[in-house]
Q: What sequence folds into this?
């Protein structure tokens, strides 16, 4: 099998296929499922380690 490993600005990934910031990446549970399914990475819109959790950053439309 071909080696699809990538290294982009120091971020190593097993393949170049990433999920964009969207509903499939809105919860930790979904992100874990994506990695188990073989996705190379995930882009989260908002990620922080300090302060209260950020909930519903989109708000009503």
A:
């Amino acid at each position: 099998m071909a080696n699809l490993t990538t290294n982009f600005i120091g971020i190593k990934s097993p393949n170049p296929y990433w999920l964009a910031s969207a509903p499939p990446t809105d919860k930790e549970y979904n992100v874990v499922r994506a990695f188990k399914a073989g996705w190379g990475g995930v882009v989260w819109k908002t990620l922080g380690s300090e302060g209260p959790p950020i909930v519903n950053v989109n708000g009503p439309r």
